[in-house]
Amino acid sequence: MTMAVLLAAVGFSCVKQPDTSAIDGWEKIGEGQATVDPGESEDPDGSKDPEKPNPEDPSTDPPQDEHWFLTRGVVCGWDDVNAPKTLDYIDIARKHGLNTFSIYGAPRGQQVWADFENDCARYGIALEYEEHMMSFLLPRNLFNTHPEYFRMNEHGVRVEDANGCPSNKDALEVVYQKAQELGRNYKSTNHKYYFWQDDGGGRCYCPECKELNASDQALIYENVCIEALKEIDPDAMLCHLCYATTTDPPKKVKPKDGIFLEFAPFYRNWYYPLKDTWVEGVNGMTHAKYLKSLHDHLEVFPVETAQVLEYWLDDSMWSGWNRSKLKEVPWDINVFQSDLQTYAKYGIRHITCYTAYVGPQYVMKFGYPDFLIEYAEGLRDFVKE
Ligand SMILES: [Zn+2]
Questions:
Q1: What Rg do the C-alpha atoms of the chain give, in angstroms?
Q2: Which of 147, 177, 274, 302 counts the most CB atoms within 10 A of its CB?
Q3: d(CA 149, ligand 1 centre) in Å
């Protein structure tokens, strides 16, 4: 996610407007979710709640499946994890409870990567690959011979700048074949796949597509890809990303079995918790709008598999995607812990977060990033209120 738009993030505004909520009824959002523990009011100290570790017995970590957050992940680059003497991600995961890595830029085919994969397997860390894949699913060079595979812009012109025309059946056949190729080349160890649309890319406005919103159009491709992936990995699951252009849920297309939601609140404000609904991030996105978006998405996608992709620790974003000008992560554990409660209230049990640029250079400049440990332990030790 390397959008220049977030350069504007430094200009966050936070105008408290207690009398004029951006979304009517936001106060009730999350309160009535079916996934909220039905007995929580009868069990104020949590003593009957199997999700809560017994404070009398601190000697043992609960088994992984007793943690509220089943996925406790990070997304970062090979450059970030490839200096274990300075910053050892695998050691942090082992000792503090992370269990999922998504690594981009890995030196595939080299022994050093094979060793990393083996270490992850040894310590029970899943490896997956969260990437913008549309230009691999529908190669741009097909535009020369098949412009109809590609999107029609608002002016009625076919363009190959991003994504495609999901109403074109022949293009979907290409996507099907390429999805299998990608699934084999980027095989995850947890059966979860991420073939995101182009970053900030436009949608198709052709006569057949124009009534479909960007999320509908993404989902058409994803429904094709999950069928392709299941042929090579019967337990495959594929992400539908709620992100920049797909913040609104799909309206006309339903997800096939195996599609899971990934909610990435890219325009929020990280100086304030999500529960501060009046806070505004960028592009007019208030926290209230994001919580409504999450609520609406969970009407379409199963909550059991829904995942959040956060940016609390995304130093690539905080540094304006300029590794030569690293800035310090404005980590606020109180915001983080509040956000975990908010997500848990909606029933979310899968969390991952960018930690891009939190690597050896970061340590040299700012010292050891204790926030990685606080993040890992915050997820591992989380107790739902
Ligand atoms: Zn179209």
A1: 21
A2: 274
A3: 8
Output the CA 152–ligand 1 centroid distance in Å.
6
> Quick one: CATH architecture of 67-380?
Alpha-Beta Barrel (3.20)
Q: What is the pLDDT of residues 131-166, one digit of tens each?
A: 999 999 999 999 999 999 999 999 999 999 999 999
Domain boundaries, the chain: 67-380
For residue 266, what are its two tokens? 């890219």
If you measure from the C-alpha of residue 309 to the centroid of ligand 1, how many angstroms do you get, rounded to a whole number? 29
Residue 101 CB-density burial (10 A; 0-12 exposed, 13-18 middle, 19+ buried): buried
> What tokens appear for 99 in the block?
């269990």
CA of 151 to the centre of ligand 1 (A): 6
**pTM beyond 0.70:** yes
The span from the first CA to the last CA of the chain, in angstroms, equals 32
* Rounded distance from Cα 214 to ligand 1 centre (Å): 11
Give the integer Cα–Cα distance in Å for 33 and 345. Answer: 8
CA of 202 to the centre of ligand 1 (A): 11
What are 76's two structure tokens?
A: 């970062």
CA of 23 to the centre of ligand 1 (A): 32
The Cα 245–Cα 266 span in angstroms is: 10
Residue 5 CA from chain centroid, whole number: 18
